[in-house]
Design goal:
Helix content: over 70%
Strand order of the largest sheet: 1-2
Radius of gyration: 15 Å
Distance between the termini: 32 Å
Largest sheet: 2 strands, antiparallel
Structural class: mainly alpha
Shape: globular
Number of strands: 2
Order of helices and strands: HHHHHEE
Low-confidence stretches: 112-117
Length: 117
């Protein structure tokens, strides 16, 4: 899995290539969500949907490059989906921590904009 794959630049092309290497099963979702973001951007004459898309998939790649974090995220997602209410809340908190750490590592704040230098 992904340790050998460096974090790519936050571009659609680079992210697609990285996903193809570390998580090829995710490519259909990547393409589907890219099409949706592009359509939303065109309809609203706003690039925010594309920025959110790139930020979301940058975070995904960041996590998938770390086998322990990726495995923990999958485990927490399973507990959130199948556990009781208390287990689901605890799992959601853990998922949030993993995502927050990835956002911080990539310098992404409020969902999609890079932090100013």
């Amino acid at each position: 899995m992904g340790e050998a794959t460096p974090q790519p630049p936050a571009t659609v092309t680079e992210l697609r290539q990285a996903i193809g290497q570390i998580a090829p099963a995710a490519l259909p979702a990547f393409t589907r969500e890219l099409d949706q973001a592009a359509d939303q951007s065109r309809q609203g004459s706003d690039i925010s949907p594309l920025r959110r898309f790139v930020a979301q998939w940058s975070v995904y790649v960041h996590i998938q490059r770390q086998p322990d974090a990726a495995a923990r995220l999958r485990e927490l997602e399973e507990v959130a989906a199948t556990g009781d209410a208390a287990q689901a809340r605890q799992a959601a908190s853990g998922i949030g921590r993993i995502l927050d750490e990835a956002h911080a590592a990539l310098g992404i704040c409020d969902g999609y904009r890079p932090r100013p230098p």
